[in-house]
Amino acid sequence: MGSEMCIRDRAIGCETQAFNSNKGLSNKLRVLENKLRAEGVLPPVTDKALTNKDKPKEYDPTLSRRVLDSKKSSKLERENIELRAKVKELECKLEANKEWNEVMIEMGMIPR
User: CA Rg, the chain, in Å?
Assistant: First the structure.
């Protein structure tokens, strides 16, 4: 655990204790987190975390899966609508060709 904290501390450029003792740094981190949440980089804060502001914020591990499922569902719905439109267009063309085929048969140009 000690080496993990050392790596994390080097990655952020200060020790974890700085967040606990420096309110300005802590506030800047909170502002950055809110900005990243607004941009969709971080997941939104859960209701439980909002009620427990002094405690660490809870991450909802199912949120990213739900977002991916929602995007996939939207994409499939869009493709479905496009394909239905294409089917209608092709059905109209087929109907027109059926009529043309009947005319050709009646005129004797195509044997039955």
Answer: 31
- 67 HSE (CA, 13 A, CB side): 10
Domain ranges of the chain: 1-59, 61-112
d(CA 101, CA 96): 9
CA 29 distance to own-chain centroid: 25
Mind listing the pLDDT tens digit for each residue in 45-71? 877 767 776 666 567 788 888 889 999
- Comparing CA positions, the residue from 70, 71, 62, 69 lying closest to residue 43 is 62
For the entire predicted model, the pTM comes to 0.40
CA 84/CA 87 separation, integer angstroms: 5
Locus of tokens 């655990």 = 1
Helix ranges (H only) for the chain are 2-12, 16-21, 23-38, 47-51, 61-106
Nearest-angstrom CA–CA distance, 49 and 64? 17
CA 87 from centre of chain: 28
Q: Which pair of tokens denotes residue 97?
A: 């060709």
